[in-house]
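Hey L., structure's done. Input below.
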Amino acid sequence: MSGICGICELGAQPSQAAMAPMLSRLSVSAEERSATLAHSSIRLGVSARWSTQELGAAGDLYIAADTDLINRQAIQDHLKSEKVTGDLSSTPQQIAALYHLHGFDFVKQLEGAFAIAIWDEKQNRLLLATDPLGIKTLYYTREGAAFLFASRAGSLQASLKEKRSPNAAATVQYLIFSVVTAPLSIYQGIERLPPGHLLNFSGGRESKRRYWDLAYVEEKRGTESSWRDRLREQMRAAVHRHLEGGDRENTGAYLSGGTDSSTVVAFMSDRFSSVNCCSISFPVSGYNEIEYARATAKHFNASHHELCLSPADAIDAIPRVVSYYDEPFANSSALASYHCALLGNRYGLHTMLAGDGGDELFAGNERYASDKRFSVYHSIPRWLRKGIVEPLASLLPANDGPLSLPGRYIRRANIPNPRRVFSYGVFLSEPPDSIFEPGFLQQAPPEKWMAIADTHFNETQATSELNRIMHLDLKIILADNDLRKVSGTAELAGVRVRYPLLDRQLAEFSGTIPTHLKLKGSRKRYIFKKAMEGILPDAVLHKKKHGFGVPIGDWILQDPKLKSLAQDVLNDPRTRQRGYFKVDFYRKISDLHRREHAAFYGEVIWYLVALELWHREHFDSIVREPVHAD
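Output:
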């Protein structure tokens, strides 16, 4: 990940040598250019892959900005209306002008993706900000009197004199969610600034505050047809806004064949003839959506590029993806995302629009419908549930037979959310002491595993269970996971990504839609599909959801090279001596992978392999590196 970094030490200007390791770890490609900017107590740095990653000074403000803004003209118009004069040609100069006008609220004038650092010389204050939906990231830490920040956690780890150990709590988050969740990082004492937050470092102290969050204030007025029409035009406008600065030749779209990516292509076709789009297919039943991607491409006369991903392609991508992600990252669909972006780059695309966000804003995930079936149980009066239903169910067999279904349903229904929606995973369904070493559980007590998820779920401004679950997914499944997957693999392939369905205005509109129109009965994304009727092909609009998954579990069983990689890593004494898992757990998961559900347990195998590969690539190598000279 290219990006920005900085060191702030009041009364002592940080040296260029101190920043060198940070910049080195930020760099992804030899094409990147790096620069620093220093003044009094601050040194800012940038490793720039794109022209919108910049340093700049304006009066008493010193700014590092990693942005992809979609409202640059609106910003110019706003500054003009406020009678702001002078040179406003660069993003740092525009940010400085907005900061002088609005103070901390300058972020509310920005639309799109951004990570920004402002050193205010007059106030002796460092301000960090990330965009509302979490497209860009910033990490920060303290070492002695110095405050350090960077776009990558590994950039900070590389620059520290005293290297940080892996964070056990963060490792558990990775195992549950396939990614380390904010505000944690994989390193002790290094944190990630959550989406929609500002951090103020002043007087040797730091403080954070949220400046934006999605509120679910449902409007009760309006007919179904009026919501349908309003949503359609909101989505159209969002896609059009995200085409700012692009042209048909170098702008394209990811096309999975699902409704989200197809919707993006549909509204892109308003502006571009023959939209460029890229798709990945798989030679495995149950994972392939290429027929739907082709239907969308044909319907909109798109210029469609395809790649059938093989195990050999996965083998090629694994070391690149592992090297790029400097925190453990086990979303196996990153292997497909990387090759899809690489395909776009091969055809001259500089910017690709992705459809991420539709599931989390408009109730497209299957677990929303399945969880609704469990929540219905609690509409039964408590006296009836506890006094009659549950005692009767306890008399039935507790096995895997059909007579055990009532008992299993009741047990699942009685798990409170948000734990219930994640309770199918191995790490939340098995006894912790059957998986982990005792020393590891002391560092990461099981009663704290869901603390971050609980906070997202319980602090949501929402009245419905569905909106609270979707808000949780917006924070963890999307911002922590899917966005980092798509943005990261795209950058690795030399492509920039935009997310029109995560347009802030569209997101805010989604929060006003009545819940019963998002999930109507068991019909997922109901109003979304109504909005796209007559625009998307019927086959695409009403197909069963597949997503962008990779058949990693099947491949690890069947492909000799992937099978060898997994066995070599999991059986290596280095892996088993990390202090995480009991030896019996490795044996059990490998056996279940072979005998029962290859796809389900294969993903767990991949989590374990990816964690060990991260250790070898990022932690073991960095702790052996010499410390930089002051």
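Residues 465-493 form the longest helix (29 residues). Residues 298 and 304 are 8 Å apart (CA to CA).

-- N.
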